[in-house]
Design brief:
This protein is α/β, with parallel strands linked by helices. It folds into 2 domains: 3-156 and 304-348, D-Maltodextrin-Binding Protein, domain 2 (3-Layer(aba) Sandwich); 159-301 and 371-410, 3-Layer(aba) Sandwich (D-Maltodextrin-Binding Protein, domain 2), CATH 3.40.190. It contains 16 helices and 12 strands. The protein has a 6-stranded mixed sheet. Strands 6-10-12 form a 3-stranded mixed sheet, sandwiched between helices. Helix 1 (12-21) packs across helix 2, helix 7 crosses helix 8 (232-245) and helix 15 (385-394) packs antiparallel against helix 16 (399-410). The longest helix is centred in the middle third of the chain and has 15 residues, at 206-220. It is globular and about 70 Å long. The N and C termini lie far apart (50 Å). The model is unreliable at 1-36 (pLDDT under 50).
Length: 411
Amino acid sequence: MPRLSRRSASPRLLLVVATLATGPATVALARGAVEIGTQQVELQLLVPWEADHPLTAPLTTLVEQFNADNDGRATVTVEAIGDADRYERRLAALGPESEPTVVLLDPRSPMVRRADRLMDLKAELEGSWASSFVPGALAAVRGGQAPEVQLTVPFEYRMAPIWYHNGIFNAAGLDEFPGTATELATAVARLRAASATPAEVGDDADAAAYWFSYLAVSAGGPEVWDRPFTDAALLTAAEALQLLYWQPPAEERPYASGRVATTVADDRAIPALRGDSASVHAASRAARAPAVGEHAGFLLGSPVSALAATRSNDQRRNDAMLNLIRWLTLPANAVLLTEESGRMFAIRYSVVRNIDAMLAELMRATRAATSVALPFAAAHPDAPFAEALADLASGRATPDVFLTLLQSTGS
């Protein structure tokens, strides 16, 4: 059994039930893992949450299995620290001379760049391990690291597909989600004719910003956010966005109302929608974005956490920490983590079982994604998107003026 720090009380009974009911993958040393040796290594797994966090039970279940499979060679203690300041102080104490520690990091933390304190994983990722991650996710958690190193690998990820209401589409004479710009225009016209709102705006226009992101990345690729706001790909996206949101109804309808055809939202929206409208939840399908440019098949997503390991001059310690990170990122184990917690990971899921229908849709979409791309809000968090969208939708701003409005305070 993993030992948990006094900072985090372990829900023992719950963990035993989870182990018996689902069981993690039984391949602890199968994916390129290395032999640790005969002398046991004591490891810490440091996580930034309290014991009642949704990931605590399934993550501890995986650690229990890792300890059992490595009995006599490695033992992992889970240390949970929910206070952000205390967590940062704990991170500051880590380094080559500290106890070997695998740690969950915020990808925006300065710690992700500390090559003097963290193990370089780049050589290991040159093999088959890298194929476990959705393309683009490894780059997204680099956080300004030097190009010659890879100190982090992605863990929890906010995946945000386009969701569409299958019943509304069928009532409008649409058998499938549009795949091209022309098909999108046709679908919008048919939805409006059927008195359906084509797309949800969302709180603070977050759903519309995701829609803009899908259109822009399709037109210009994942590096589109590095270009000026006058770029042709962004203008193409703004024109398609105006088509979706032109002259919205006086009332801002939520997707859960059953009168809105599409939204874009990450995994956090699924439980709320299931509670607010079971019928909309049952009718929701995940779709790929219409290809308004050359890029297609991608998903939008933002990293929540990344896994890293402290540097050590002891090869046994390095091998043990590396094996633990590999174990936690096995596709089969990502399935268990998602099924038990409802959280998503930028890992190609090995199977999708009969769980929540929307969550299963999202897992399939993640497995099939050609890549994961950052949304507009991640690149330009201060841009006045809601205000600019209101002007675009009402006709007060043309698509090029809309882009100028985004640039005014968001560059």
